Amino acid sequence: xxxxxxxxxxxxxxxxxxxxxxxxxxxxxxxxxxxxxxxxxxxxxxxxxxxxxxxxxxxxxxxxxxxxxxxxxxxxxxxxxxxxxxxxxxxxxxxxxxxxxxxxxxxxxxxxxxxxxxxxxxxxxxxxxxxxxxxxxxxxxxxxxxxxxxxxxxxxxxxxxxxxxxxxxxxxxxxxxxxxxx
Length: 182
Known about the structure:
Elements: H1 9-48, H2 51-54, H3 59-96, H4 101-132, H5 135-141, H6 143-178
């Protein structure tokens, strides 16, 4: 087994996005603890600005969308922590496996960018929802980001499994070839 090639830009970018994802998730957690009420008030204020046009003056509808938008912020925080940590573990494993450096670099970049993009999607949808009048409209506004980033993340996870399987198969074959016959 061997590690990554030196000076792999895709690998470095993959790790950059992994750490950006982790810091984003931790930053949101810190903000929740420090200024949760201000964040919720900000979501409500975004809706208040369009209360008559988007909500037709219905404060109950605004309150419901703002509450759901807050849950999207929490999803962003949770996805960043879970996906960022998983991506870090998979990138570490990828460095131990045998394979084409370009493929492993592409997988690393897809893991990191996918983790960041998908968790950031939930933040953007939460931020936009009060001004758009619905969480469905907010999710649809950023649907391409969600599809692309989650697709990258899942495909990269599958590729790590494939590379792991190939590495284990090669090691088994080498062990079989070296084993005494008879």
